[in-house]
């Protein structure tokens, strides 16, 4: 049979623990967990920034922008 049984996985885990030791595996787990946490945080920040850029402008925003533009023309002339 080509599949892995529970015994194959158990023997592999024992060999890995014997080769690297539990302290190195614990540190590796912390490092990988921190990397995943930072990755998720950066993805969330990128989504918030993208949503802010893609927000449709409301009529109120357009009115304030045109008022600022028109007052700037009258004061400069």
From TrEMBL:
Keywords: Cell membrane, Membrane, Protein transport, Translocation, Transmembrane, Transmembrane helix, Transport. It is found in: Cell membrane. The keyword Metal-binding does not apply. The chain crosses the membrane at residues 6-22. InterPro entries: TatA/B/E, TatA/E. It comes from the Bacteria. Residues 57-70 have a biased composition (Basic and acidic residues). Residues 53-77 are annotated as: Disordered. It is a single-pass membrane protein. The Tat system comprises two distinct complexes: a TatABC complex, containing multiple copies of TatA, TatB and TatC subunits, and a separate TatA complex, containing only TatA subunits. Substrates initially bind to the TatABC complex, which probably triggers association of the separate TatA complex to form the active translocon. PANTHER family: SEC-INDEPENDENT PROTEIN TRANSLOCASE PROTEIN TATA. Belongs to the TatA/E family. Part of the twin-arginine translocation (Tat) system that transports large folded proteins containing a characteristic twin-arginine motif in their signal peptide across membranes. TatA could form the protein-conducting channel of the Tat system. This is Sec-independent protein translocase protein TatA. It comes from Acinetobacter albensis. The gene is tatA.
């Amino acid at each position: 049979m080509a599949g892995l049984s529970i015994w194959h996985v158990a023997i592999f885990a024992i060999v890995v623990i014997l080769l690297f030791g539990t302290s190195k595996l614990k540190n590796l787990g912390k490092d990988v967990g921190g990397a995943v946490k930072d990755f998720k945080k950066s993805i969330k920040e990128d989504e918030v920034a993208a949503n802010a850029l893609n927000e449709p402008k409301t009529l109120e925003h357009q009115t304030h922008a045109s008022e600022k533009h028109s007052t700037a023309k009258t004061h400069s002339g």
